[in-house]
Amino acid sequence: MSKLQKSQLNNIETLRMYLRQMLSLAENVFRFENLPKFIDVAYMNKCLLNKGEIAFFYEEEIGTLCCLPFVKYGKLDLYGRYESIQVIGENGYTRVLKNGEFVIMYDNYGKYPLFIDIKQYAERMALYERICDVNVAQQRTPRIWQTSSDMEKTVRDLLNNIDGLTENVVSYTNLMVDKINAVLQPAPYVTDKITEKKEKTWNEFLRLIGVSNITVQKKERNIKDEIMASQGGTIASRFQRYEPRKKAIDEINEKFKMYLEKPIILSYYDNLPTNLKSIEDEINEDEQEGGNENV
Fold first, then answer.
1. Has this prediction a pTM greater than 0.70?
2. Rounded to an integer, what distance in angstroms lies between the CA atom of residue 273 and that of residue 120?
3. Helices then strands (H, E): number in the chain?
4. What would you measure as the largest C-alpha separation in the chain, in angstroms?
5. I need a labelling partner for 102 at 20 to 30 A (CA). Which of 12, 166, 209, 282 fits?
């Protein structure tokens, strides 16, 4: 495998690494309590992220509430809502459900797969990471080789063996050292600037999936208005992902309550606020506690 092939594989693996990490975070933002044990929560979260929607329904033969991906079946109503759908299981199971027999849960109010946006952020993070890798490697003495056009392949093969850390002795009958010149050119160190760009992109991704960093900001003693302003985007993202789920859960609890032991409860794993009013109340409480400690 050539040096170029290794570099290309490294690019792909770096992208996959960030994509796995980001998808894992985005899939596990919400906590569902009292869901029927038969429902695979991980599968449900993956479908919501990759397809943007999933259907809940009661399956008589199994005797429990289920949730599966689906395709449109028949016509839509006046607002483009499904009048009937066909749910599809991984084992080939299918069933046509009519209006009133199912509840659709959406990942967001846009009703589109968030995977599309997350992949964009993963590609940027992977690009920044690989740039840093190359830049750090260039901090060793860089080598720019000058030679004649007929010697180019010979010199390239020789350098590939050296950079590949092979210990083989390679001989070339047409290798003329006097036709090869090495020009040293120091590479500027830009990894610190790229790292700042990575942190900004990562924070944008966290904002997209509704993960708040308010705790960190409060430790930095930011004033209340700064915290409120910085959390505006996060709260908006939380709302557009939380509310469609909450609406579906409320409908499920009402429509299928005879099949549930307890009502299903939805919340964020971090238990942080889901609106700006809650954030303001929390900040005021902390300020009051801080004032009492100083008395």
1. yes
2. 27
3. 9, 10
4. 88
5. 209
